[in-house]
Amino acid sequence: MKFRVTIHRIVAWWLAAFAFMTIFAGYAHTRDWAENSERWINIHIIFKWAMFLLLLFHITYTFLYTRMSKTIVKQPKKHWLRLLQHITKWLILAFVLLTLISGFSYYNWTRGALPEWLLEKIHTTFDIGLTLSILAHVLIGFKLMLKRKKINVVWVNIFLIVVGMGLLAFYIYLEATPPAH
What we know:
The chain is an all-alpha fold. The chain has 6 helices and no strands.
């Protein structure tokens, strides 16, 4: 059982890394951060597939082996971080489905199902919710990991808040920057 939990946590952290790299590569492509914008779309696609495969494993494991604890439901004030993590999990799942389905419009075998403009609008609109949900989910997971390891000091909490606010500010900056195309 401990081995499965360890694998699940490792996959979760890799999933978070690939999610952020996928989002970053998508922004790099749409904002033309480099001379060769096509390179960024290829990187975005590679990361998207890696994220998709890790997400399938993570979702399968989560639904098969984890349940919301009755303790969380009975004492939500005491376990509010865990409850918030469960809420962000469901938000991530909804946003991922929307952005992945619309992101697959890049491939010929999915074109024509919906108008191209609608798929692009879905992809660029729901990535905001996806990014914010992933950010919250990862920071909560990091906080819970530190709590499990008995690291619960004020400066760590301040550090997590500063990192979270910094990432949020960076994301707001990216959203405020108009796309190049």
